[in-house]
Amino acid sequence: MFIGNLNWIDLTTSDFAMVIKDKLLYVDKSLFIEHFLNERQQVQIIARPRRLGKSMNLRMLHCFLTDSEDFRPLFEDLGIRKSPSWEKAHGNPAFLFDFKGLNAREYPNQIQLMANAYADSYASDPRCPKYLCKLHELYRDNPEKSTSDAILNLMKTAYAVTGKKSYVLIDEYDKLLIDIINDKDYKTVRDYLTQVLSAAMKGNIYLEKGLLTGVMRVSHEGMLSGLNNAQTYDVFEDCVYTSDYGLTKSEVEELCDAAGLSPELMRSWYNGIKIGDQEIYNTFSVMSAVCKKECKSFWGKSGTMDLISSLSSISQKNSLMGLLVTGAKMNSRIEDRVSPASLQKGLSDDALYSLLVQSGYLALSNWVNKYGTVRIPNKELEDVWSNFIFTSFFSNAGSMLQSIFSILEPEKIADELEQYLLTTLDELSFHNVPTHICKDGKRRTHEALYHNVVFGLLKGGRAELNYDSLSSNREGGDGRFDVDMDLRKVSVIFEFKSGAEDEDLHKLSIKAREQIEEKRYGFGFTLPIIGIGVSCYKKHCKVAGRWIDYSALK
């Protein structure tokens, strides 16, 4: 169920109160509150990929629980209003701490200042004991004297005034650690956060319940080792919050019906990440598609993707490249927990794929005894991978490609590009690359692999090539060309063919180039056209090029 105006969507905010008050479009996730309150675990850790509504849910929960302001009118049209949990609304002190803004230099002061802001109203209450008032004044006037007991002291003060235990909610508890994985102060920061969380949530008689959200299921870390009363709910094992983060199939179908969009198209673009056995849609992407009235890539890259690119090896990127072939899958050992500290030493394959699954960049299925199958689940993530991983993989391609394409003589371009591709392919591993049997009965590597290699090279060399546009799999003439690059003076159209062991790659490259002419891929282009045919078999390739003239065509 959704409420609000279908045409009023704010993709920049996680402010639940503002969304409801301004009647913005909101998909009702309020039963998340019931699930949290009914779950017996006192301290809960929810790990989910980005853009599935973690911050919005936490702010909604805070509005529901807090006794400092009555937000109950916001929930009148939501499912939680009819729940038995409604009686707990506006009943206890509730404190929301947003850790996403913490930095490695000021994090103790930042946490102290957040605690101070909440404690101000309690410390000024006549019921507040003098020693707690003085303690608050000390840290309020001298935030640089921050203490790891900041949240604990806040809860003591709230209990002294109200006689009620507190709810503590912490958003993005793991972000600072991920941001500074390779920083020399990593251990110092981790140890301090450990003290803060342990003081607030381990054996604390002033705590009603605690909830932490983040991207990763952090383990083997001192940070959470002291929270022996905590339960983690993640993409691997969660039968409690499966439908509370991200959008379900029925929710997306309802939005599509109201917005006049295709549920099938939405599914192909944004569905595929699984929580337990349930497929979930990316909330941000679906809402963006409803807002823009079209499906395309909205999620984009994140700091996690930067981290993956910087820490993964060439061989690991080779394996990931193979996953870009439509329908490709990979079997791997998948750990359900990752230690940020271990990432300082380089990613093992186990840690890499675990991080990718937890971050929402790969879908996991058939996960049994730590082994499972991973794949790229939808068109948006195919776009994310091809546009980001390959750009970083081929970041040094620019100067060489600039030299090659500045010649403007198709035959010479073909010769130079062939030599460059041979060098590039020689660095790649074809051990895990998927193959398929074609109509002629011969087994070939899927031509999409070579397509992606060249497309990645061109993306990586964008600054030096200075092209106006680079497109892939676009309709043109009587079919779809593989890649087109507009170099302002000329358009270069690429067609790729994958060969078998006994095929003549030279003839196959000419066949690929001739297909550009025969299927009129560039008909109607305003610039002169160079056609480039590329044929490959494993690490071998041939390239053929010539000017394409459509002047005789009508």
Question: How would you describe what is shown here?
Answer:
The chain is α/β, with parallel strands linked by helices and 554 residues long. It folds into four domains: 2-102 and 165-233, Rossmann fold (3-Layer(aba) Sandwich); 249-292, no CATH class; 303-385, no CATH class; 394-548, no CATH class. It contains 21 helices and 19 strands. The protein has helices at 16-21, 31-38, 54-65, 107-123, 130-141, 150-162, 175-179, 186-201, 222-225, 249-259, 263-270, 283-292, 303-311, 314-323, 349-359, 379-393, 398-405, 410-426, 447-460, 462-465, 505-518, and strands at residues 2-3, 26-27, 43-47, 94-98, 166-171, 207-214, 230-233, 273-275, 278-280, 330-333, 363-368, 371-375, 435-437, 443-445, 469-476, 479-486, 491-498, 529-537, 540-548. It has a five-stranded parallel β-sheet, with helices on both faces. The chain has a five-stranded mixed β-sheet with strand order 15-16-17-18-19. A three-stranded antiparallel β-sheet has the order 10-12-11, with helices on one face. The chain is elongated, with a radius of gyration of 28 Å.
Q: Key terms for this structure?
A:
4 domains, 554 residues, five-stranded mixed sheet, five-stranded parallel sheet, alpha/beta, Rossmann fold
Short description:
With 554 residues, the chain is of the alpha/beta class. It has helices at residues 16-21, 31-38, 54-65, 107-123, 130-141, 150-162, 175-179, 186-201, 222-225, 249-259, 263-270, 283-292, 303-311, 314-323, 349-359, 379-393, 398-405, 410-426, 447-460, 462-465, 505-518; strands spanning 2-3, 26-27, 43-47, 94-98, 166-171, 207-214, 230-233, 273-275, 278-280, 330-333, 363-368, 371-375, 435-437, 443-445, 469-476, 479-486, 491-498, 529-537, 540-548.
